[in-house]
Amino acid sequence: MRILSGMRPTGYLHLGHLCVLENWLELQKEHECFFFVADWHALTTEYENPRSIKEYTYAMVADWLAVGLDPEKSVIFVQSQVPAHAELHLIFSMFTPLSWLERVPTYKDQVRKLKALGKDITTYGFLGYPLLQAADILIYLAEGVPVGEDQLPHIELCREIARRFNYLYAPIFPEPQGILAEVKLVPGIDGQKMSKSYRNVIPLTASTEELAELVNRMVTDPARIHKHDPGHPEVCTVFQYHRIYQPERAKDIETACRRGEIGCVACKKDLAAVLDRRLAPIREKRAEILARPDYLREVLEEGKEKARAVANATLARVREALNL
Ligand code: SF4
């Protein structure tokens, strides 16, 4: 199956992204994958401050490679380097009813959320975001797109666009499926959703010392004052992390916590060490990659060429179907 997925370069990656990347690694083993840096999508919310997008793009690709994405197996590229996405988006915009975009559930929700953070995204570009996504997917004739449940309406829209195009002009596009991945939801250090807007993330680049510091700030059971007080791991963020990163020991930790046999300081130290063991090889690999900036550029250059070849072939068929 041909798979497509991307990430927006709006900041440095964190542990939440690592779960997504672990899923990509699994897909890479079995399928033909296209992974792209969605820099045009980043512009939809960062249009006032586009300067950092390039820096985040390189940092993101370095992380992808450090985690194990393999440019020999997968096509890794930057969206804005393949102009065919934009042309297909434009063509799709000609026949997409406005109501299809307005009814996408994430639209109003995101506008409201970002307004609360002082960002106005009541723009033409943001409304068209799911349509650009449809172009990103369909330009590669991708059949599978790994998504979270909240993104399923975007895939449904993409399928509708494919059907409408196929009906109006020529049967070119497959109807892609959303692949619901079992991505673990890692909470932020305050127990809320991990997000850079909430300043509660654990960056993938965190050093041993930074990890210890961040874990130290995690919210635990507020009712537990003394080391031997019985704890309630179900309300403790540290325990949620233990369950994700060392499930084999979670039961013992839970029992020890409930019986007041383990103190929060020791429990946090244990977690910081576990996270450090997980991130240390990624740190090392990233340092090697960043020491060879030419390598990063080569990967993206090669990815661009491979992506363009496929995208331009689809676009040629589209133009022919429209007699352009
Ligand atoms: Fe949380 Fe561990 Fe403290 Fe229990 S002992 S409240 S699991 S940090």
TrEMBL record:
It holds the Pfam family tRNA-synt_1b. InterPro entries: aa-tRNA-synth_I_CS, aa-tRNA-synth_Ic, Rossmann-like_a/b/a_fold, Trp-tRNA-ligase, Trp-tRNA_synthetase. The keyword Ligase applies. One of its GO terms (cellular component) is cytosol. It catalyses: tRNA(Trp) + L-tryptophan + ATP = L-tryptophyl-tRNA(Trp) + AMP + diphosphate + H(+). Keywords: Aminoacyl-tRNA synthetase, ATP-binding, Ligase, Nucleotide-binding, Protein biosynthesis. GO terms for molecular function: ATP binding; tryptophan-tRNA ligase activity. It comes from the Bacteria. GO terms for biological process: tryptophanyl-tRNA aminoacylation. SUPFAM superfamilies: Nucleotidylyl transferase. Its EC number is 6.1.1.2. The keyword Flavoprotein does not apply. NCBIfam families: trpS. Belongs to the class-I aminoacyl-tRNA synthetase family. PANTHER family: TRYPTOPHAN--TRNA LIGASE, MITOCHONDRIAL. This is Tryptophan--tRNA ligase. It comes from Ammonifex degensii (strain DSM 10501 / KC4).
